[in-house]
Amino acid sequence: MALSFRNLGLRIERFGTLILPSVRAASSTPQTAPAGDYLKKVEDVASKYSQHISEAVNRWEKCDEVYYGKERDMKNFPTVKYPITHPKVRLGFLPDSWFQALYPKTGVTGIFFMSNIYFRPLPFPVRINCVSSQQGDLGGRPSFRRTWRVCGYSHVAYQTIRSYYQQTSRRRLREQTRYHKPMNALIGNLDKTVSTADEEIARSLAVKDLIKAKEENLDLQLEAAYRERLQQVYRAVHRRLDYHVEYENTKRRFQQQHMIHWVVNNVIQGITPSQEKETLTHCIGELRRLAKMSQAAPSV
């Protein structure tokens, strides 16, 4: 409990230390007379509040040092831990440990059997303690008086137990309202903060893998872009080489055709009409000779 209030006091003190400079800064700015008085009062209240919180925190630290300091023998003298709920009972007031202690010997009805032995002779005489079929027919003034006596004792005991439980319930309600409810709300907020912090820690631990995955993704994208550009360069160079090859082939073919046409034209231009006539005559004579030779060949 001391540690919880100590942490709570430290948080409140931190809140006061954060609020007080802002109030002082606001009061230092030029304001009108009512606003200045109001800010001055607020500053006084904030300073008193901060001083009160500091004193409370110091008291808690001193108590914590006295009761939970280094000189405390926690092994031989541990702290007392009060149970949250009372032990299990039966019939609203009989401890369950009594039944468990007598269970191996008497069974389930052990405590009832023992109570019948010890408490039955008290309000009734011995002569009517025997259980018989005529026990319900017993009447008269003594039985009536004992019955009312038992009813009166039961009523007094009931009122006493009822008042005790009402006081206990009121005390528990006050404890629930003043201590347990705020502490549970604070613990719930702290648990929520811790869970949020755990989520953020898990996310921060996953950042390393996320960065690694993004780096690998970027490497793959760069590799794909490099291969695509390399393919583009290959196609561009291939087209240029094809252009140069086609250019050289076309140039050589044009030169050859030009040379052939030039030679043929020069040869044709160099032939005179007489040479052409002689050539034609010689060709005709050769053709005739070849024809005669072809005709003479079958006869042989």
How would you characterize this protein structure?
It is found in: Mitochondrion; Mitochondrion inner membrane. The chain has 300 residues and is mainly α. Among the domains are: 2-68; 84-128, no CATH class; 214-293. The protein has helices at 2-28, 33-68, 96-106, 110-119, 141-270, 273-299, and strands spanning 89-90, 94-95. Strand 1 (89-90) and strand 2 form a beta hairpin. Helix 1 (2-28) packs antiparallel against helix 2 (33-68). The termini are far apart.
Characteristics of this structure?
300 residues; mainly alpha; 6 helices; 2 strands; elongated; disordered N terminus
Question: What is the secondary structure topology, with strand pairs?
Answer:
Blueprint: H1 2-28, H2 33-68, E1 89-90, E2 94-95, H3 96-106, H4 110-119, H5 141-270, H6 273-299
Antiparallel strand pairs: 1-2
Helix pairs in contact: 1-2
Overall strand count: 2
Class based on secondary structure composition and strand pairing: mainly alpha
The fraction of residues assigned to DSSP E strands is under 5%
In N-to-C order, the SSE pattern is HHEEHHHH
**Inertia-based shape:** elongated
Sequence of strands across the biggest β-sheet: 1-2
Q: Based on the structure, what is the oligomeric state of the protein chains?
A: single chain
Distance between the termini: 145 Å
Main location: mitochondrion
Pfam families: Mt_ATP-synt_B
Organism: Fasciola hepatica (Liver fluke)
Subcellular location: Mitochondrion; Mitochondrion inner membrane
